[in-house]
Amino acid sequence: MKAKVYVTPKKSIADPQGNAIGRALNKIGYDKVEDVRIGKLIEIELGQITKEEAEVQLKEMCEKLLANTVIEQYSFEIE
Amino acid sequence: MKAKVYVTPKKSIADPQGNAIGRALNKIGYDKVEDVRIGKLIEIELGQITKEEAEVQLKEMCEKLLANTVIEQYSFEIE
């Protein structure tokens, strides 16, 4: 079973890395770019496990290790 | 218009960051985790632009700046 976890900075948190990429894109001609935010995409390959178990475990993994929930939000999808 | 760009290491490229997170997850009890790969999720807010233009521009942005196509692959979706 494959899962994709998305970890992004919360809206209220400044994202200097995203801002830098946004400015760089503007500079090389992409003037329609208004805002850029950078997050992580974590692809996890899970062994024999039910979808229900996977959901519970992924939530725990995000809370414990994958996301810093003070400044980041997460979501995931299971394929 | 909002776009999400996903940049991940190519399958043939080692991903030590992903391996470290995989081992850490195994260590704290998630023994079903078999493989982890880490990529970037780039959320781009685009101004007034058609979907067709956005597609062309996003492909260019990925090739020029967002992805290192020697070692990374990319995909994107426009909302």
Describe the structure.
Two copies of one chain form a homodimer. By secondary structure, chain A is an alpha+beta fold. The first copy, chain A, has a single domain (2-78), classed as Phosphoribosylformylglycinamidine synthase subunit PurS (Mth169, Chain: A). Chain A has helices at 16-27, 51-66, and strands at residues 2-9, 33-46, 72-78. In chain A, strands 2-1-3 form a three-stranded antiparallel beta sheet. Chain A binds chain B through residues 6-8, 18, 21-22, 24-25, 28, 30, 32-49, 53-54, 57, 60-61, 64-66, and chain B through 6-8, 18, 21-22, 24-25, 28, 30, 32-49, 53-54, 57, 60-61, 64-66.
Keywords:
homodimer, about 80 residues, alpha+beta, Mth169, Chain: A, about 35% strand, phosphoribosylformylglycinamidine synthase activity (chains A, B)
Mean pLDDT score of chain A, rounded?
96
CATH architecture of chain A: 2-Layer Sandwich
- Strand order in the largest sheet of chain A: 2-1-3
The fraction of residues in strands of chain A falls at 35-45%
H/I helix tally of chain A: 2
**Low-confidence runs of chain A (pLDDT<50, min 5 residues)?**
none
Oligomer: homodimer
